[in-house]
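Researcher: We are triaging several targets before committing to wet-lab work. For this one, the compound of interest is pyridoxal-5'-phosphate. I'm pasting the protein sequence and the ligand SMILES. What I need is the predicted three-dimensional arrangement of the protein with the ligand bound, expressed as structure tokens, so it can go straight into our comparison scripts without reformatting.
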Amino acid sequence: MRFDLDNITRKNLLKLKPYSTARDDFKGMASIYLDANENPFESSYNRYPDPKQSQLKAELARIKKCRAEQIIIGNGSDELIDLLFRAFCEPGVDNVIIPQPTYGMYSVCAQINDIEVREPLLTDDYQLDLVLIRKNIDPQTKLIFLCSPNNPTGNLLETKSIVDLVTTFHGIVIVDEAYIDFAGNNGLLSQLDRYPNLVILQTLSKAWGLAGLRIGIGFASEEIAKLLTKIKPPYNISGVNQNIALEALRRREFKDQYLETILKERQILESQLINFSFVKRIFPSMANFLLVKMENAKACYEYLLTRGIVVRDRTSAPRCEDCLRISIGTPEENEKFIIELTNYQKIAQ
Ligand SMILES: *Cc1c(COP(=O)(O)O)cnc(C)c1O
């Protein structure tokens, strides 16, 4: 299938002249800036931040081994998801495919943009059902959202199936790799140059421990990155956040340490959870959480709440009946969690 970016871009954007910031007109260093109606009195933040996030992109390109021009930075991945809808989907006309169960934000964003959502189920083992997905594709299908490792199931999707879809679909395939750092695998990034219709999402919210900063990262062809950049709010990442993110990226030991601890804790938690009589199944996880199937998961959820412990109730998600999603905490938190489950086991019997 030939992929034609102009063909799937919303017509109103083809001729869009983006908002030009004062600093777009002037490049270089000047000694006096009277162009942006800023307050001239020096403080750390009296100037507008870099709308292109050049330093952040340069550092990310170095770490991720791609070109800075292939990167777009969003105010969280959530902003990037919304930009994808606004770039490619005509409200009231187009549709997207979101295999379920998965992250809820894709379909919320679709609804906000008045885009029809088609939700074929994943297979029993949470892989892509290519036959079912293909049945849902029609000429108005613009985007397919895949999540790998998948939230809330924790598994990686098979690369072969993803590539199969990417190479045969006329629209854009988004692979959300928010949890890829926990998977011990580099995901699809190294193959980005091969597929003009592939968009990869990553984030500093999980392994990097910076959810509060709201930094989402999109990787795509230079053309797609340029299009999305054209429609994003110019100053979408604050100067403070750009600086802190840059600092974190330059001091990767922190992330590596977090990762090591979380992976170790994931294994410990798994080995303890399986011993509870009410735990029926723990799904293999490549992320920083465990999906656990229990007898009467709702009752366990409610009990934990009374003890001040909040986990995620996924019992109403398709193929997640009686499942709770449990994020990996600090060693101390996990220990308390296990103690409370031990108490619960006594009561529940
Ligand atoms: C947590 C999560 C994100 C992160 O979103 P941000 O807006 O970058 O914080 C993205 N995708 C999935 C599947 C997630 O679970």
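Researcher: Any quick observations?
Model: The longest strand covers residues 141-147.
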